[in-house]
Structures are given as C-alpha cells and as structure tokens.
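Task: fold both queries, return tokens.
Query 1:
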Amino acid sequence: MISWFRNPISALGLPVALLAACGGSGPNEGVERDGHSFARPDEARVTHVALDLTADFEGHRLGGTATLSLDVATGARAVVLDSRGLEVENVTDAAGGALEFAFGPVDTILGQALTVSIPEGTDTIVVRYGTSPDAAALQWLAPAQTADGRLPFLYSQGQAILTRTWIPTQDSPGIRQTYEARIVVPEGLRVVMSAEMLTPDGAPAEGGRAFTFRMPQAIPPYLIALAVGELAFAGTGPRTGVWAEPSVVARAAAEFADLEPMVAAAEALYGPYGWGRFDVLVLPPAFPFGGMENPRLTFATPTILAGDRSLVSLIAHELAHSWAGNLVTNATWRDFWLNEGVTSYIELRLMEALYGPERAAMLEVLARRGLADELAGFGDDSAETHLHLDLAGRNPDDGMTAVAYDKGAAFVRTIETAVGRPRFDSWLRAYFTRHAYTSITTDDFVDDLRTHLIAGDAELEQRLEIDRWVYGPGLPDGAFVPRSRAFELVDEQVRRWVEGATAASLPVAGWSTQEWQHFLGALPDGLTTSRLEDLDRTYGLSGSGNSEVLFSWLMIAVRHHYQPALPALERLLTTQGRRKFLSPLYQALMTQASWGPALARELYARARPTYHAVAVRTLDGIVR
C-alpha cells in the first residue's frame, strides 16, 4: 500500500543537467503549448495512461500507480507532467529502475510541474502516488448524501484543469491520450468510467473488487472520469442505457427513454457515433454541472428528472459533444467556444429533429435572453464577450460563461442561415470528419470555414463578419434572431396578469416547462406580495418539482423578498450543488442589502461542505 507523503525534492533541488535536458526535437514539433499546462509536448508527450488505483473511502484518497507511455523527441531527457496536491512515492521505468523526479514551485491555479528524468530510450514511466483528501476533482460523499443512503459515493470532475489533482499526466485538451484502468473498491460498490467496461461485475481483489476499463480512442485528459457507488443499470436501447442508484434508475430510464432515437438523429446529421455506447449516469445532487460529456458515459445531474422529459435538451447537449468536443476538441481553453458553441447549436438541431421546430425555437429564445443578460453584465465592449478569450494568468473556469455557449451557438446559427441548411450541414459533417480525434484552435476553425465553406466568396465573407464574431465583443448586428410563436402567446398572458387578471384565469393548461420559464422570466419587478401569492397559490410554484421552473420562481421571490418561498429556497440551496442554480440565487441574495446577505451567509456556511470544489470556487467569490 502506498505511503502518503509528498516527495521532498523541490525544483531548487533539481539537477542542472536535468533542467538542461528538457530540450529536444522530433515528432512532436509544432504541438502548441498550453498556457494552462506545464507540459512540453514538443519534447516528451504522454500518449497513454494506465491506472491501477485503490479507493480508500475512509481516508478519501485514491492510491496506486499511473503508467504513462511517452512519445519522446530526439535528445529530450525529461518529461514534464501536471500535478496538483499529488503525493508521489517514486517514479520508475518499465523495468522498475528508479527515475529522478522533482516538483516545481506551486502555482495557485496550475498546481506544480512534475519533471521526471528519462534516460535515452525511455518510453514508459510508472508513477506511484496518492491523491490528497481534498483533491479538487474528486468528491467523496457520505451515505447520507446519496439517494439511497446506504453506501458512500465517489465521482470525478476533471474539466477544465482538475484531472491533475488525481492523475499525474499532461493535463491539456491539446494532448489527447488513450487510457486503461483497474480500480479496486470495497465490496458492494460498483465502478463506472468514461471507457469500455471490461469487467461489469468486477473481480475479487485485495480490499474488495477490481473493475477494469479501456478507452482505445485518444481523448483529452479532462474526459478521463470515474464514479463509484451503489449503482444499477437499465437499458434504453441496444447501445444506450442509464446508470443510477437503485431507487433512481427506473425513473431515470423513463425520463431518458429517447436516448436511442437521439443518437440516431445525431448520426443522421453528423455521421457515425464513434464511441460505442452512449449511457447516462445520474449522479447524486452534489454534482456541480448539469451534465458532463464523458465519452461512453455522460454524467448528469438529477435536477433534470422532471417526470415529463421536458429537460432532456441537456442530454441532447451532452450527446452533441460526442462530435463537438470529444471528437474535435478545443486545443486550449482559449478556444472553449469551439466545444460549447458548436455543441449548443447541435443541441437545438437534435431537439428540433426529435420534438419539433417550436420546442427548439423556445429553447433558442431562452438561451438568447440569457446571453443578453450576460453581455449586459459584462458591458458592450468587454473582452469577456469575445469568443476567443484571453485567459492568460486566469483559471479557465472563468471562460465558462454564456458567451462560449450561446454567442458561439448564435454565430453557428447565423452561418447556417447565411448559406442555407443543406450546404451548412454538408460542411459541418465534413468538418468533423476532417478533424476527427484531434484538438484544434480557433484559427484552425476559421481557416476551415474559409477554405471549405466560404471558398473565396467575398460577398459571403463580408456578410458573415467572422473576425467580428470571433475576436470582437458583443453580438454583431447581423446575428440571427430566434422567434417562438408559443412565447408570443405567453407574452399576451404576461400582459394580462400584470394588468390585473387573476392567475386562475390564465389559459396555461398544457404549458411546457419552457413556456413557464418564459412567463416567469418576463414578469417585471415591483410586484406586490398579494400578486405573488396569487401565482403561488394557483400553480404551486414554491412546491414545483421541476428544477427549472422552481429556479425561475425563486429568482422572482428573492428579488421581491417573498417570504412564503424562502423555505423552498433553503431546500434548493442546501440539497443540490448545481452551479447554474446556486450562483444566480446566491448573487441575488447578496444584492438584497436589508436581509439577503445574512441569509446567504447562513445557508452557505451550512451547505458549503456538501458542494463540489468547482462550485465552491465560484461561490466563495459571491458569498463574502
């Protein structure tokens, strides 16, 4: 068993010869270095990771070995890895010979470089290590934090630069790697990963059962993911299904019954699905995101289990990443919009294909309204509203805003409108084929667009304003404007209610989640308590089981200090960890000077230990 200590060698103790040996030339020349990684892939590049780890649920640690295959340039005598909080016992070559290694200075965002000496001819290193109990990628949940309350749970969240907190590798989206894993966990627990499952029931091992996996396609390291818990499976088709805790799995499978048609619809548009299976893991509510597109196994929040399949656009979004993000990846986090903007566009196309144009139109209008709010918050000329962001010296999470998602989608939608859908679909499908299993920059995307779609058409080039969209602020005047006929009818009911009509008189029977979101989002400030009570009593908004409707209602309640909704606010903030809901609600509380900050601080102090580190980093900057 690994001993848990940090190796005492520091950067100051690294021999001059080792520092001087980092240079080299060879097959990795031209690989772009990533400002959010210490790696020098042009000198020595990780191509494969083999994990053999044991989960210690009492100590909240993973420990064991990571065997790294390397592509080494001629003359290079060191490989530089990313690490943050890892405790390294030793590093050896494939034959077990000791290799010299050293940690660099601590960077508060990036962690530490881990530099390993590699004698000539070395193409494999074995790092014996353990994770810190507070590794930011890993959340260890007590049984009480799970749906069934019987066994503990563990899951990882590597995006953007947190994989380095549990795997010593080159943690950059531009350095794609294949991987395999053997994970040992206590009896009664099951392991799932973003990879092909080779031992569905595990095998006896010291300390419990061992589960093995392999991912033969090279992926960016942020997509290496695992979860451990009391998990059951329900199939939804020949290559799709749902993993969840036993008490949740049937409900999740019913919610995601359209997984197989969704994959088929995506293939019809963008080519064969390249990852084998598309399963969804419904995590406990602490998960900080709506979903994470880990290949073969999307991780999803339980907040999308609405009971009526009205929130499955999130699953369409994660499936779309199987092309935009997983198949073709942003090379650096400056290029994040290449993942999210293209994916958000494809999400709408899938929703249109499965549920009709009006469903997609409603989602697009809601997204554009959210983008308008985000742009207004940043300011018209802010560099934060560029698609291609300058993130030098910053945490890449700072770039995960509606700009990347919804300005990016608006750009793609505008291109489609300009050239026509058939021509655009042909280009986009070919784009995925040309760049399959690679990581590209924004400049690469723009070059492809100009070469293969615009193809010298000066009038189209001028009309698209590519540089204005990508490298400039705000939303260009020529942006496609989405419209929804259903929302126009909702707007009429907003007007009627604001002018005094009772809630009971509104013809809301059959309204979708999106229509309720639009209605609530269109209500003005300055509403009286009696008017809010009219809505709440009539429609049970404070008790809504639909997370999106409840969130929209609670934002109104906070702005108006509507006290009957405060118990629902407390429940939401203390029982789930989805950052999309937490951040705006805490921000809204902090702006209500007479009463909100005190409540925000009280609730945050109670809930903070249950949130993932990704959410905590954001919320610590809000609740002060």
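Query 1 returned. Query 2:
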Amino acid sequence: MAPVRLSGASPPAAPELPPSTHGIALLGDLKYAATFKHFDYVNPDAPRGGAVRQAAVGTYDSFNMVVAGVKGNLVEGISLIYDTLMAPALDEVASEYGLIAETARYPADFSWVSFRLRSAARWHDGKPISPEDVIYSFEMFKKLDPGLAAYYQHVVHAEKEGDDTVRFQFDAPGIRQLPQVVGQLTVLPRHWWEGRTEAGKQRAISETTLESPLGSGPYRIKAFEAGRSIIYERVVDYWGGSLPINIGANNLQELRFDYFRDSSVAFEAFQAGSIDWRVENVAKNWATGYGFPAVAEKRVVLEEFPIRNVGTMQAFAFNIRRPKFQDPRVRRAFNFAFDFEKINQELFYGQYERISSYFDGTELASSGLPQGREREFLQAIHSEVPPEVFTTPYVNPVNGSNEAFRANLLNATHLLFDAGFEVKGFVLVDPKSGEQLSVELLINNEGFERVILFYQPALERLGIKASVRLVDDVQYVNRLRDWDFDIIVAVWEQTLTPGSEQWDYWGSHAADLPGSRNLIGIKNPAVDALINRIVFADNREDLVAASKALDRVLLWNHYVVPQWNFSKVRAARWDRFDHPRRMPKYGQAAFPTLWWRH
C-alpha cells in the first residue's frame, strides 16, 4: 500500500551541511583567513633558480613510497614530486590549509570529512587530479603501508560525491584529529600506477620500482643513477605555484642528493665543497670538525635552528618479543649500566642532555607525580600500571663518577637476581637453561659503534655477553621487518598534537604487524587505554594529560634505555643560500623549502 501523505505536508528537509572551510585547525582558530596572500614567514619576492647538493648515506632501490615500510630502500626526496590534500602552516601548532583540496567540510562530531578538489589541480602529464585518484591513494596506502594502516584505522572508507568531492567516513564520532589526518594524504595518479611502462609491462604499486613516477608537485625527477644519486628539477609550470601556501617556497631549480657509503665520507665531501648543505648529527664534528679554512673565511656558515615542535625519544630499544627481555627488571638493569654522563663528556663534548620522556622537550612530557586529569586517567587503569607511576617521579640513573657507577652496577645486579638470573663462573646465567644472558646490539650506522664500545664493558661486568652487529641498510631493514633483533637504536618523534600514530608506535594491534613502528613489541592494555584517551581527546587539557599519562606508563615499563637529545638543528652550509629573516616558529631549518640561492 502506498504511504498516505497529508494534504499540504512537505517532505522532510535534507540535513543542513556543515560550512566549508579553507583550512583545518586541530584546536583553536586558524591564523590565516581565506583571503590570505602568503604565509607571514616567507619571502614572497625570493629569487628563483640555482641548485643545491645534499648528501644521503647508504643507497636506494625504490621510488615507490607506498611500500617503503615493507619493501626496498626509498630514495631521498621523493615526496617532492607529490602534493597532499592539505599542507601545514609552519607558524601554527596544528593547522592545515588547502592544497589539492580547495575546501574541507566536516560536522561538529567529526564523524566524517569531505574535500572539494581544485579544478586547476593537475598531474605533470596534464591530466586533472580526480576524486578517483584520492580514493585510490587512500586505499593503497592503507592496504600496503602498515604504519599508515594504523594511522588510518578509524577511517572506514572513501567515496566520491559529485564530480570534484571526496568524502571519508570514520568509524566513530569524536576523534578531532581525523579530518587533519586525512588531509595529510599524499595523492597518487591512479591512471599511471594502473598503466603500463614504455616497454609494455604492467606496473604494480605493491612492488618497488626505479621507473620515474608521475607526480603533481613542485618538482619532478630529472635524472638519477640508481643507488648513487638523484636530481629533482622544479616544474616551471607547476599548477599550484601561485597558491598562497606556495608563494615564497620551492625556489631552487635543482635539488640533488648524492649517496655516500658512510657519514664520514659525506662530511669529507662537504668540506671539499662537493656538498652545499649539511645537518650535523655528530657532536664531535660540531665541536672540533669545522676548523677548516672555509669556515674561518666565512665561506661556510654554521647556524643552529631551535626545535619547538618535536618531542624526541632516542633510545636503545628492546625487542620484548624475546623471552629474555620480558621482565622489566632486566630492562631496567640495562639503564643502570649506561653511563651517559661519561659518554657525554668523552664523546659528545658535553653538548647533550639525557632524555627522560617520550615527549622530550615539549609540554607533553611528564614530570614529578601525576596530578589532576592525568591522575584521573591513571587511576582508571590503576591495576594495570606499575605502582611507581603513582609514588615515584621517573628519573634516569645518574653516573659520571666511579662511586656512582659502582653503585648503579650493584643496583643492576640486584635487579637481575630478582629477575631470576644467577652468576656462575663470573657470567650471568639463566638457571633454567644454564645459558649466559647474551645480547646483540644491531646497528646500521657506524657512528654508534663507539657509543656501544663504552657501554659494552659495563654489561660485561654484569656477566652479560654483549656484541655489536653493524649491517648495511638492506639487511637492517629486513631484520627489523622480521623482528630479528635483540636491541636496536630507535627514534620516535612526537608532534605537539599526538593522535592516531600512537597506535602504530605502541598499540597492541601493531606489535606483530611487519613494518610497524611498534618495534619494541608492546602489548599492554594500559598503554592501549591511554592511546584511546589521546585519540578521543576533545580539548587541549585532556590531550596533554593523556599524553603525560602515556609517557609515564611507557617510562616505568622500562621498554628502552633513553639516550640523549639536542634541542636545535645544527646546520652547516656553503655561503650560497639565504633564508627568510623571520623563520617559522615550528619549521626548524625549513631547508630547502623556504630558501633561495644568492
């Protein structure tokens, strides 16, 4: 039977769409209005042209960024050839403005987001960037990149709306970060990846490739020598060059990366003038290595740029999938044996500070005892966290003197005994197996060998057999993907607005996912609960409190032996380049994006 309609009744009105916006601010308001001409920190009149040569260490065998987490060694700089839906402003904590997407639209409950694409957006072959390209890119990254699969886990699907709009549906409301997460999507050309090579071979986005990919960004690949060098050239008729977010950026005509077998050879190339720009990560070099004539003659410029937007944990990380590292007392014993103070003075010229937080250097770092909202979050999982979380501020052991070092080794010994180990014949053994506790420290950077040589004798004094294995990049990546290691040197960088990436770093789901950033293998319900608090935080207060609580729980589980940090980027350059007078607060060196050649 047909429904009865009352005379004069109107059909229900369609729900009103939320307003569209030219940008997205995670918390607070956007700094720049829709009519802005350019970011405040750029030089809109910067000259264009010239080239820069940079160094890369190791080798590469792939241009395919989609499978970089699981296959091959990705070439430096490949992201330069692509555009994203939106792009960040480097003078705001967490804001993005339209790039491929002209506008975004999302409801108050953050249950979905849609992007309307710019009609002018083009691939380098002249074809327009389509909603199909966006959907394809999202699906391929989520399918083939374990890290992004975790990052996008709350994004259910993408669908086309009309001729120029893509809508992303989320699995639950309330995750404020998701519109920005999707806005960061790198968009790939579906027609190119599903097409054939000049030789007629079908391309496969699931495999590595050394065929120059089609892009849409400010640069394209000009030339390369596989594994040894690559040159990118600026696209003169780049479709997005006149957008406000790109004014004053991408000024250099050519960007070249030359690969060197190790960092010391790369430094020699810089001194010889074969490399133009270098970020110095070796404290000894910064303290003593820049005494060559070009520095004294001011032909080489040394400059430090403060880091304000990144919290870093760099550490010796345990693979707790292995039984010998599953007891936190064993892991803590390794921290007592690490004499950071001696290493800092003898190797690093006193330049570093010890890391004591997974959010080191930001307001998200925990300190003292938990208070307020942070304590509330921790009380909700009280039975699942170490009791010290509530009673004892976390601090690393302090060495630096013979007396302190002996006392800390004694503390380490007690912890190992409490964990069930015994000393027999001056070696530490597991009484169940009768085998000595042995560890291999796996590295792919020879610079860490000298650090481990300082660390090794202390472990041996505890009766632990410690060895170091230096392998090439390919072996290193493969062993990490297979979780085939005892201890590695790992780095996690945190933004001022952590979110879904925490699942990939520490979440139980990622622990057994090859290629994930959960290198440690953490499966901890308390950690999962606090990640949820971060992801679903609807105000800054809760986000900070949940981040501090997560930090505290990670620290007191002793998953790592924290190393050191330096709060600035140390950069050396031949005096051929200039940068804006007022650098962006959160852009660090922003090289080469905002620089130009004089």
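Both queries returned. Flag for query 2: DSSP finds 17 helices and 27 strands in the chain.
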